[in-house]
Amino acid sequence: MRRVELEATVRGEKAREVFDALLAWERYPELAPHVRATTVHRSVPGEGGSSSWELYFRSGLLSWSEEEFFDPGALRIRFEQTYGDFDEFRGTWQLRQDADDVRVRFDAEFDFGIPSMEGILDPIAERVIKETVAWAVTGLFPDVTHQERLTPRTPPGKSVSPVVSATAEDTDEHAENTPEG
């Protein structure tokens, strides 16, 4: 299984407010250019939710539906694919108040179930997922820093967010996942 990890610090915010904002899956298409669409089937209030996602991936779409489990007391969101293009896909968002800032950690594991293609598909999917999370967190809050410097690639036909920039060469769908750090 391939792992995706991303850590960010949201400066000057309260953890519960960051938690609530991250759950606004319907906003992700406007925040992250890789996201073509999200459909929220069920969300807060409640202990769980359900949503469907479509991300631009190579020359097509990567899509799945997931169940989400919300634990506001532990500042944790857990998700697991119920149907979609992955053979397996699951992960967590974990938040922690750190003085005036909030530490956000995203961890996910995925497997397409196609061993002969993992060398091609996995690095691209890892980059797309990681960049989607980075764009969303950066778009939701005015002051965010990421543990590693990312150079997001914008999918063809999508506009670039004013918060994070990309160059024309960053849209090459065959480029390797090479975040600068």
Give a verbal description of the structure.
InterPro entries: COQ10_START, START-like_dom_sf. Residues 147-181 are annotated as: Disordered. Pfam families: Polyketide_cyc. This protein is an alpha+beta fold. It is 19% helix and 40% strand. The chain has a single domain (2-171), classed as START domain (Alpha-D-Glucose-1,6-Bisphosphate, Chain A, domain 4, 2-Layer Sandwich). It has helices spanning 15-22, 28-31, 118-140; strands at 2-10, 35-42, 48-57, 60-71, 76-84, 88-98, 101-111, 144-146. The longest helix is centred in the C-terminal third of the chain and has 23 residues, at 118-140. The relative contact order is 0.22. Mean pLDDT is 84; it is low at 158-181.
Features:
Alpha-D-Glucose-1,6-Bisphosphate, Chain A, domain 4, COQ10_START, START-like_dom_sf, globular, Cyclase
Summary of the model, kept short:
By secondary structure, the protein is an alpha+beta fold. Helices cover 19% and strands 40% of the residues.
The counted number of beta strands is 8
Distance between the termini: 24 Å
Shape: globular
Main-sheet strand order equals 2-3-4-5-6-7-1-8
Structural category: alpha+beta
Instruction: Kindly report the average pLDDT value.
Output: 84
CATH superfamily: START domain
Order of helices and strands: EHHEEEEEEHE
CATH topology: Alpha-D-Glucose-1,6-Bisphosphate, Chain A, domain 4
Low-confidence stretches: 158-181
Number of domains: 1
The CATH class name reads: Alpha Beta
Domain Coenzyme Q-binding protein COQ10 START: 15-133
Protein name: Cyclase
InterPro entries: COQ10_START, START-like_dom_sf
Organism: Streptomyces albireticuli
